[in-house]
Design a protein that fits this description.
This protein is α/β, with parallel strands linked by helices. It folds into three domains: 129 residues, HUPs (Rossmann fold, 3-Layer(aba) Sandwich); 112 residues, Alpha Horseshoe (Serine Threonine Protein Phosphatase 5, Tetratricopeptide repeat), CATH 1.25.40; 176 residues, DNA Cyclobutane Dipyrimidine Photolyase, subunit A, domain 3 (Orthogonal Bundle), CATH 1.10.579. Helices cover 47% and strands 7% of the residues. A five-stranded parallel sheet has the order 3-2-1-4-5, with helices on both faces. α12 packs across α17, α14 packs across α15 and α15 packs across α17. The chain is globular. The termini are far apart. It binds flavin-adenine dinucleotide (FAD). Flavin-adenine dinucleotide binds next to α10, α12, α15 and α17.
Length: 478
């Protein structure tokens, strides 16, 4: 069978692996010679607020690992620094590639960049091809009976499962034609410093980047998968996969994870549902890119959120006086991770107890989360603030103390992240201000001195939020 192309350039972006990789597999099938490239995109790097950023180090290490893996297969990775929209067409030109292959990205900025690259390539007779890889099912493939994209998770999830066939799930082989990989004309891996960044505590935190890191994380999680359904809401236990960063940067194939979960059945079904939530929010962002700056539901858009800068600062720093909220916010800053249940509680607390615009919280998460992903972050924030599609109804307000008692019963998670409360015993730790002055002294934690008093009273904050949502939810656009 004749190849369609003489030379193809595979452009890696958020798919930093050389196994089960759609664009690479297709390129090896369709071309006689295949070059591989990654661009540290200065458009993205320059916009980051901090010069020490765990995500940059994660990518940098994963790119080095990808280069080593491709080199072992007889090829290698061309690594460049610059504006990807310009570097990729120039590289295709320099290497005389007929086409550029990449895996599809659904974020508005990536779509704009890809449109630019496509136009630049086509203007000189080259072509640009995108493949489904980051998700199992492309957003356009799952529609309701009326042909419209879904806005509610459960019917989406049902239709998604029904839509699956071999083509969605089968591995995209690389090894079979790896001999077609071409070595890079010159080798050049910039140091982290050359990119303008300094090293972080990523490895010290136990995060293992690259394909090997993903594999080790996945192998370890499979031992716990059967208990996921029962224990996943417990931040004090290590019951979830920690694969989010690997899914974010594609160091593992989502096809492999979904295939496994489908076969495993039982407790794995709850985990599969989370992977479908990931696809749901990708689909929502793709069809409704306005959610980046606006509420999904017009009745909640442009609300005059009254929360103050001081409220926001207390929340960011983990000084609200609500132990579970503070533990979560401190875990985020210390590690770049926060347990999902706690993310839900802190997001609800900011938007409902403090009535701070959810977009401020979303930006804070975007700055600190190692697994930060526009679609999932925005979708979940809008869920928690009740402004999103299929969101928590506006009148449902988490009680942070009840959540704490239920999901961190012994207070172990709190004690880990809020050392001021380390000697406060279990029942009291969820609402330490209720301890008598004597008990406070005995546990070395006087409220107001060693640990803040609650910044709002739950009952009062709840009533205020209900009244505020009732009064304002039709104010604009409703
Ligand atoms: P597991 O429980 O093992 O789940 C497996 C995978 O499913 C995750 O790795 C993730 O890819 C996906 N997933 C799980 N829960 C969700 C969800 N609710 N929505 C979408 N995908 C999900 N997840 C991100 O990947 N990036 C974000 O920026 C992000 N921001 C969030 C913000 C808020 C306010 C909330 C409430 C949740 C957010 N999540 C985000 C979803 C979820 O908290 C994380 O995916 C999860 O905690 C990651 O841990 P894990 O890999 O151990 O998850």
């Amino acid at each position: 069978m004749g190849e369609r192309f003489d030379r193809v350039l595979v452009w890696f972006r958020r798919d930093l692996r050389d196994e089960d990789h759609a664009a690479l597999s297709r390129a090896l099938h369709d071309a006689r010679a295949v070059y591989c490239a990654f661009v540290f995109d200065t458009d993205i790097l320059e916009a980051l607020p901090d010069r020490a950023d765990r995500r940059v180090e994660f990518i940098w290490r994963s790119v080095a690992a990808l280069d080593a893996a491709l080199t072992a297969r007889g090829g290698g990775l061309i690594v460049r620094v610059g504006r990807a929209a310009e570097v990729i067409p120039a590289l295709a030109q320099a290497l005389a590639c007929d086409a550029v292959f990449a895996n599809r990205d659904y974020e508005p900025a990536a779509l704009a960049r890809d449109a630019q690259v496509k136009a630049a390539l086509e203007s000189v007779g080259r072509s640009f091809h995108l493949f489904r890889d980051q998700v199992i099912v492309d957003p356009e493939e799952v529609r309701s009976a009326s042909g419209r994209p879904y806005q509610v998770f459960t019917p989406f999830s049902r239709a998604w499962l029904k839509r699956l066939d071999e083509a969605h799930l089968s591995p995209q082989p690389v090894a079979v034609r790896a001999a077609r990989l071409a070595p890079p004309p010159r080798r050049e891996m910039p140091s982290l410093e050359a990119l303008g960044f300094s090293p972080t505590d990523l490895l010290a935190l136990g995060v293992a980047p690259g394909m090997d890191g993903a594999r080790a994380t996945w192998d370890a999680f499979r031992q716990r998968l059967a208990d996921y359904d029962r224990l996943r809401d417990r931040p004090d236990l290590d019951a979830t996969s920690h694969l989010s960063v690997h899914l974010r940067f594609g160091t593992i194939s989502v096809r492999e994870l979904v295939r496994y979960a489908l076969q495993a059945g039982g407790g794995a079904q709850a985990w599969l549902a989370e992977l479908i939530w990931r696809e749901f929010f990708q689909m929502i962002l793709f069809f409704h890119p306005q959610v980046v700056n606006h509420a999904f539901r017009a009745e909640f858009d442009g609300l005059p959120w009254p929360g103050t800068d001081a409220d926001f600062a207390r929340w960011c720093e983990g000084r609200t006086g609500y132990p579970l909220v503070d533990a979560g916010m401190r875990q985020l800053r210390a590690t770049g991770f926060m347990h999902n249940r706690v993310r839900m509680v802190v997001a609800s607390f900011l938007s409902k107890h403090l009535l701070v615009d959810w977009r401020r919280g979303e930006r804070h998460f975007a700055r600190w989360l190692l697994d930060y992903e526009l679609a999932s972050n925005n979708g979940n924030w809008q869920w928690a603030a009740s402004t999103g599609c299929d969101a928590q109804p506006w009148f449902r307000i988490f009680n942070p103390v009840a959540q704490s008692r239920r999901y961190d019963p012994e207070g172990r998670y709190i004690r880990r992240w809020v050392p001021e409360l380390s000697r406060v015993p279990a029942p009291a730790i969820h609402a330490p201000w209720e301890m008598s002055p004597l008990a406070q002294e005995a546990s070395g934690c006087r409220i107001g001195r060693d640990y803040p008093a609650p910044c709002v009273d739950h009952g009062h904050a709840r009533e205020r939020a209900l009244a505020w949502f009732r009064a304002h939810r039709h104010a604009d656009g409703g």
